[in-house]
Amino acid sequence: MLRAFDRELTEEQEKEIKQLIADYFFRLVDQEADEIETQKKYTPDDFEKMAHEHHRTPYQQTGR
Questions:
Q1: HSE-up of 4 (CA within 13 Å, CB side)?
Q2: Would you kindly state where each structural domain of the chain is located, as residue ranges?
Q3: According to a count of CB atoms within 10 Å of the terminal CB, is the N or C end of the chain lower?
């Protein structure tokens, strides 16, 4: 994406731009999480319960 500007950037400028992009995507994810929280009417207790749940796929033993 930065190559599209066809301009030499200092290392500091490149770091700042990468941070801006990371912040942008963080805001998108944060907004989406807020929307889901509102739609599903999650409470702090719900989040606490989810933090301690395990949703792993059980391993199936194959015949040896």
A1: 2
A2: 11-39
A3: C
